[in-house]
Amino acid sequence: MDNPEAAVILRGMKTDSDILIVGGGLNGPALALALTRTGQRVTLIDTLPEALRKDAGFDGRAYALALASQRLLKAIGVWDRIAGEAQPMLDIKVTDGHAGAGPSPFFLHFDHDEIEEGPMGYMVEDRHLRRAFLEALDEEAGIIQVDGTVVEQNTGHSGAEVVLADGRTLTAKLLIGCDGRSSGTARRAGITRTGWDYGQTGLVCAIEHEKPHHGVAHQFFMPPGPLAILPLTGNRSSIVWSERTATAEAINALSDEDYLAALRPRFGDFLGEIRLAGKRWAYPLGLTVANSFIAERLALVGDAAHGMHPIAGQGLNAGLRDVGALAEVLVLAARRGEDMGAAPVLERYQQWRRFDTATLALATDAFNKLFSNDNPLLRLGRDLGMGLVGSVPALRRGFLREAAGLTGDLPRLLKGQPI
Amino acid sequence: MVNRMQASQSTVDPAEIAKFEAMAAEWWDPTGKFKPLHMLNPCRLDYITGQIAGEFDRDLSAQVPFAGLRVLDIGCGGGLLCEPMARLGAEIVGADAAEGNLPVARIHAEQSGLEIDYRHTTAEALAAAGEQFDVVLNMEVVEHVADPLSYLTACRQLMKPGGLHICSTINRNPKSFAVAILGAEVVMRWLPRGTHEWSKFITPDELIDLLKNSGVEPVDRKGFVFNPMSWRWSISDRDLSVNYVTASVKPD
To answer: How far apart are alpha carbons A58 and A298 in whole angstroms?
Structure first.
């Protein structure tokens, strides 16, 4: 609370909107669209001017959208705008690789024919997803879009207000922070965070390759960290490559040619000759979880609530689960006549998402620790484990449904149902 | 900013207002004294809103689905049902025989920016004054009254022809004794001891007969069931063993 006196003032007020969303990345617009479609008055605040956000060159970044996430995007009118540019992931092959020694003989092979729902997910380029969101937002007259930076926020008995750098004040019944791992919304509300650094950095790039990928996603687990090769449209793939931070920094400093030379031996030549198809990116990997997902008249969504290790591409998928859950909780509350920003309503969202998120964060962390290790016993253990999972169809289907985001207490939007 | 957001203040003594504000905060604290009511509330509201929407053909996703409906909440307490009804657009009267509840409910409605007509009165007095409503909410009251039939008759008099009467209460059997009295009052201390008198509890069949005798036509009955695993209430078609609710209409 920046101004304790405001708590006394914020009462009995008529607000500009029902819901004020801070952060125009991907979760913010998704939530705005989901809520507007059910009749809520939504204001979306972003710091980037629209012209900047619409920059359309391929920058090498892409998302692995789980099937459940794709369903949510369809329900909010975004998916049909990118369907033509999405690459279905038909198979996932998981291999315990070892640099220089080639992949181990045990590997997991997940074929989408084993689950009835279809492909387990889609690869979508960042630029296409952002463009689709912007188009959908612009066509939705109900959403008020504001360019600005929040410099102050206050919450009180019956509402929340934010003050922008240009002096404007906006009010709503509920303030939602979708403003990323270093969420200012959470910080201003006094919500502390727990987390740690993995000492690893994710190197991300897109490559063009000579041979087709046939829609197969590959994940190699190697001692320094995992390497994922995820199919993009055409003869292109997205590479997510984790290394110890010192190594990653050294690799990132190389010329494009030397960078490729470092990448090639790590996954062999099954895709033929490769070259870069976009910029190179580096993200330090770490886990950061907000110690509460809610506060008075406030809720956190996506990385603002839980920034995860992106090992399995679960960051955006987990964010969209938050979106689906929060939208459902708020819309059902509104239909019952409850105050959407009241503590009992927000508590339902927190209960729904906090356990799920903590489990996923810890599982991802444990998974990464297990596989980022060269201990021969662990290596033998995981090779045998993979062989076991791979040979038992029920186990394999379980993994597959988990990867497709079809397990757990799914929000309606992620089941492809309206709220 | 300050001026625009300043609440309209009533002309009561500030010390009194502070006291009522503290009491309102208590009523509306989801983890406080009225926690069991807050836990049950979404479930009650799902039933009430669903029945009203069905009876009067309203769409709950509309902005103010209950616009034009006059609703009475008997035993309104801090306004846990009145405020949602007001938010859905109903013209709502909250009646409570306990005078102390009313300023508390009024302060909270004012803080929430809602218009609710709170009155210190009884169903019988409202009926005698000739008040008429589309919907009468009669939640967890009938087990506390001395003469249920004359009370339910007053409720019927308050309804417009074609009006809806929603009445919830607690069943009378060993399980309800264990859950509502031993569980809620003695073990969990959710409710003050002596809140309920078990012999006054009414079975669903008895309530249906009382409602028919009061002159309304019962059209639905459901259970409110608490699941201790999920720690949540839900509506059940079959399990009316402890808390249950009925809907009745007044013939045209």
So the answer is: 35
Give the Cα-Cα-Cα angle B123, B129, B133 (nearest 5 degrees): 60
In order of A39, A65, A68, A76, the CA distances from A71 in angstroms are: 20, 10, 5, 9
Cβ–Cβ under 8 Å, residues A89 and A118: no
Report which DSSP code applies to B140: S
Which range scores top for mean pLDDT: A133-142, A188-197, B69-78? B69-78
Structure pTM? 0.85
User: How far from A406 is each of A30, A45, A62, A80, A318, CA to CA, in Å?
Assistant: 19, 31, 21, 21, 12
In this model, does residue B104 exceed pLDDT 60?
yes
> What is the rounded distance in angstroms from the CA atom of residue A115 to the CA atom of residue A401?
7
What's the half-sphere exposure (Cβ side, CA atoms, 13 Å) at A112? 17
B-chain residues within 8 Å CB-CB of A339? 83, 87, 112
* Mean pLDDT on A258-276: 87
Domain region containing B87: 12-249
pLDDT of A290 > 70? The answer is: yes
Region of poorest pLDDT, from A158-167, A231-240, A314-323 = A314-323
- The answer to whether position B5 is within a domain reads no
B45 touching chain A per CB within 8 A: yes
Q: Looking up tokens 């794709």, which residue turns up? A: A70
B39 located within any domain: yes
Return the DSSP state at B185.
Answer: I
Collect all residues of chain A within an 8 Å Cβ-Cβ radius of residue B60. 335
Cβ–Cβ below 8 Å for B113 and A14: yes
Structure tokens at A186: 């959470």
Work out the minimum CA distance from B46 to partner chain A, whole angstroms: 6
If you average pLDDT over every residue of chain A, what do you get?
81
Confidence of residue B180 (pLDDT cuts 50, 70, 90): confident
Which bin fits A300, alpha (ψ -120 to 50), beta or left (φ > 0)?
beta
Looking at residue A321, its pLDDT comes to 92
CA A123 to chain centre: 13
Per-residue pLDDT, averaged over A56-83, amounts to: 88
Q: Do A13 and B45 touch (CB under 8 A)?
A: no
Q: Is residue B104 part of a domain?
A: yes
Measure the CA–CA gap between A239 and A21, rounded to whole angstroms: 32
The answer to whether B87 faces chain A, any CB pair under 8 Å, is yes
- Contact predicate A155/A173, CB 8 Å: no
Domains of chain A: 6-415 (3.50.50.60)
Tokens of A76: 């909010």
Q: Are B130 and B192 in contact (CB under 8 A)?
A: no
Give the pLDDT band of residue A310 (cuts 50, 70, 90). Answer: low
Q: Determine how β-strand A298-300 pairs with β-strand A294-295.
A: antiparallel
Specify the number of domains making up chain B.
1
pLDDT, residue A360, reads 58
Task: Give the domain CATH number at B88.
Answer: 3.40.50.150
- State the average pLDDT for chain B: 87
Please list, residue by residue across B159-174, b when 16 or more beta carbons sit within 10 angstroms of its beta carbon and e when fewer do. Answer: beeebbbbbbbbbbee
Taking the C-alpha atoms of residue A63 and residue A73, their distance in angstroms, rounded to an integer, is 13
Nearest to B202 by CA among B166, B165, B171: B171
Measure the CA–CA gap between B119 and A411, rounded to whole angstroms: 41
Which has the closest alpha carbon to A160: A192, A185, A124? A185
List the Cα angle A224/A230/A232 in 5-degree steps.
150
